[in-house]
């Protein structure tokens, strides 16, 4: 999945270059329990990871956020309510003020608390 239009970010290149941070989390429902974990995530043959694409030539690569999943049976992850990706956009000034680099939240709830977000 590629997220090209990111609310509040006009240029992903500038956002990343100036110290902005994007946190990705997987919320997974396995029936008996639901858990939220930061990406990357690996469970057996399943791997889900994310990255940002920045480009000086958008004709070659479309700038944006990419979430990629790999599995022996990848169709079990696609269009499934059991796999929900959440992401938090953190501007550079907030990332620096919260010392995010040294206090990386392990869950979406921790990120919300650290950054003062409403859940």
**Count of folded domains:** 1
Number of helices: 3
Please tell me the overall pLDDT.
82
Order of helices and strands: EHEEEEEEHH
Cα-based radius of gyration, to the nearest Å: 15 Å
Structural class: alpha+beta
Sequence of strands across the biggest β-sheet:
1-6-5-4
Structure description:
With 119 residues, the chain is of the alpha+beta class. It has one domain. It contains 3 helices and 7 strands. It has helices spanning 12-17, 92-97, 108-115; strands at residues 2-3, 21-29, 34-38, 41-43, 46-53, 64-70, 83-90. The strands form 2 sheets. Strands 1-6-5-4 form a 4-stranded antiparallel sheet, with no helix packed on it. It has a 3-stranded antiparallel sheet with strand order 3-2-7. Strand 2 and strand 3 (34-38) form a beta hairpin. The longest helix has 8 residues, at 108-115. The protein is globular, with a radius of gyration of 15 Å.
